[in-house]
Amino acid sequence: MNEKAIYTLEFHKIRDMLTHCADSALGKERAAALLPRTEREEAELLQQQTADAYARICQKGNLSFGGVPDVRDSLLRLERGGTLTMPELLRISSLLTAVLRAKNYGYSCERQSDEERQDSLTESFSLLAPLSPMNHEIQRCILSEEEMADDASAGLRSVRRQMKTVHDKIRDRLNAIVSQASAAGMLQDALITMRDGRYCLPYRSEYKNQVSGMVHDQSATGSTSFIEPMEVVRLNNDLRELALREKEEIEKVLAELSAQLAPDAENLRYDQEALAELDFIFARGKLARDMQATRPEFSEDRTLCIKQGRHPLIERKKVVPIDISLGQDYSMLVITGPNTGGKTVTLKTVGLFTLMGQAGLHIPAKQGSTLGIFREVYADIGDEQSIEQSLSTFSSHMTHTVQILESVTDEDMVLFDELGAGTDPTEGAALAMAILTSLHRYDIRTLATTHYAELKVFAMTTPGVVNACCEFNVETLSPTYRLLVGIPGKSNAFAISKKLGLSEEIIREANEFIGVKDKSFEEMLGELETKRQLLEEELAAARADRRETALIRSQWEQKQKNVEERREQILKKANAEARDILEETKEYADSVIKRIRKLEQSSGAGHALEEERRKVRERLGAVEEKNGLVRREKKKEHKPEDFRIGDTVRVLSMNLTGTIHTLPNEKGDCFVTMGIMQSKCNIRDLEPVEEEPSGSAEKKHVVGSSVGAAKASTVRPEINLVGKRVDEAIAELDKYLDDAYLAHLAQVTVIHGRGTGALRTAVQNHCRRLKYVKEFHAGAYGEGDHGVTIVVFK
């Protein structure tokens, strides 16, 4: 890609923004050297890497590449068998720490998402080698760039222990000398100092001949002499020897660490290059996030379609998004309109988006935007846009235009700003049309801006060439920066001049100087603009109505949803209350049946049975009153003679079926047998039951031995709940256990399968709440093992 286009379209400023997003020096180097790719596969790979980095940033946050040093020189020394210094080893440790951080980041991103998810960065993360044992060894041995730990080696520890002992002896001896000399007034200051790595005392110069020792230094005034007393000379010599031994031990440790690192020099080089590349890729992802950019698609035929594109170098609050396409129905776009209307910004936006897309950068446009892959992007865009343009400016632009025409191919894109300007308008327009015709002949993607009316006509009359304009608000004398494709623009010179205060007479005379053709052409453009504005107003109103309709529909759907949710809550609550009532009634019925069975075996049971029946009736009445239930009314009033002994009737208050045992008396009272229970009832509480035809099933009773016999003939000794949901299974199990208990079955088998164990747990919890269940346990070997539960009744 030519350098002139890089700087004319300000791609270098995008590179500067990208460089600031990188953390490491090597990552910044790659960002600063970024260039657009001309091969589709390379551009697609870069875009995929940017998209994957963007996704990981949104998912897990930023990955810091700070602290990634450049260790290339150190690696060369390692490969040649050299020994690294402590600062070099610490830089390698910093590199390995960054590698471990990056590897953990990559692993956490993949673990949070689908386990089988692979992206273009997965391999780069997986191949990183943090060399953790080696890194820990370096950190253990080296504390800083100038300090090595005592435990780096046994020899170093021993030497430093001896050095500490000698230090202590020197200190003790010098402290004693300081005390004596201070008392005698021989010292300038009562302190211990060092000169040339040896401990000395600051004596007054007049006493130096009275001190046995070596003079190492003298103050600038000559009043103080720094003397090493003879008593500590030997100890200082020992300390100097130990310091040399300490240096040797440090060198041994550094050599050992370097030897351990040498086999991994290639891994370290890959780690550094991989981190630099990842830093570069994540910088592109951060830039896409900051720009709120999206990934563009690349077309096969170099067509482009930019949706709501925003120039990335203009402040987001000020920039006006543009929609522009090229190469589908037309290969050339001629943009007209007043100065400062946004024509040049449109050219730069298209060109810059093309360079960014081919460089692997996302573009600040709406999702679904499409770009082409071009071999070159030629741009002749001048910064001077005033009437003072001279011939030299025209010559400069024409020289560049000639170079473009000599090099351009059908795989390139050409951008012209004010083509043919700076010279005689007639000749300039003719040259511009000829140049555009030459480019259009070879189907070269071209965008050009102009003020020439001849080029507007050229675009209107040439197939494959389309007009466009940058909208201008005449009322406010300000551009709207909206690009309108398919409509030629007006210069609006008369309207602007009138707004600025030019007299009506001058404007009228200027209007007379315009040719008839030019005037009719401008009037036609004005009419088109007026109609366009009316259509846009109607379209905006229609869209507003559509949004309002959608809002009303959304509110209605939300209300319906709320009603359904409320209905579900009410039904759920009602079901829960009914379930509680049913459980309570079952428990009470169980206790009544037990008491009735006991009464059957005792004498004087009639009165007791009647009392139990009364209690049952009162309890049912209380439940009806509490829950607002309405007693089932009989169909019509009956007389005593309507009932005969042996007739089947229903006792309405108890909702039970029985048989007339005695004829009604004058009050309408009679005894009704209901299974094993006999109760006194009034005919107002009775309703005859129609006799079933012969050959039909026997009459059913609710309580007693007849019910048990009927149930025993239909209830199976096992129930299969496999494949059912817990709520469905428990409801079916509850009814089955009731029937089995009334059928006097000693035990039953509940088949629920193994599965996750949820259904087995629910079955056993339900059995635990039933009063008539004596015990339950898992099946034995041969009975189904843990796939069944054996329930034993009381």
Explain the overall architecture.
- The protein is of the alpha/beta class and 794 residues long.
- It has a 6-stranded mixed sheet, with helices on both faces.
- The longest helix is centred in the last third of the chain and has 85 residues.
**Share of helical residues:** 40-55%
**Mean pLDDT value:** 82
Major sheet description: 6 strands, mixed
Amino- and carboxy-terminal Cα gap: 93 Å
Spans with pLDDT under 50 lasting ≥5 residues? 384-391, 628-634, 693-709
Radius of gyration: 50 Å
Give me the secondary-structure topology.
Layout: H1 3-8, H2 11-21, H3 25-32, H4 40-60, H5 72-79, H6 86-112, H7 122-126, H8 132-141, E1 142-144, E2 147-148, H9 154-183, E3 193-195, E4 198-204, E5 213-218, E6 224-229, H10 230-261, H11 265-291, E7 297-298, E8 304-309, E9 322-326, E10 332-336, H12 343-358, E11 370-371, E12 377-380, H13 391-407, E13 413-416, H14 425-441, E14 445-449, H15 453-461, E15 465-473, E16 478-485, H16 493-499, H17 504-513, H18 516-600, H19 605-627, E17 648-651, E18 656-660, E19 669-674, E20 677-682, E21 686-688, H20 705-714, E22 718-720, H21 726-742, E23 747-751, H22 758-769, E24 773-778, E25 788-793
Parallel strand pairs: 7-11, 10-14, 10-15, 12-13, 13-14, 22-23
Antiparallel strand pairs: 1-2, 3-4, 4-6, 5-6, 8-9, 15-16, 17-18, 17-21, 18-19, 19-20, 23-25, 24-25
Helix pairs in contact: 2-3, 2-11, 3-11, 4-11, 5-11, 6-8, 6-11, 8-10, 9-10, 14-15, 18-19, 20-21, 21-22
Summarize the structure.
With about 800 residues, the chain is an alpha/beta fold.
